[in-house]
Design goal:
Layout: E1 3-6, E2 11-15, E3 24-29, E4 33-40, E5 43-48
Amino acid sequence: MADLCSCALEVAPVHAAPDASSEQVTQALRGEPLRVEERRSGWARVRTAYD
């Protein structure tokens, strides 16, 4: 089961892979609902309301 949370940062980049140098595919805005699908090595795989 996925965790539900909201973005705590003003703007948070969402990358294609768990690497800061990977492509930024979208961004989450403060308060935007997110579904955390997986957490690993300090990264989280999330889905936004638009996915």
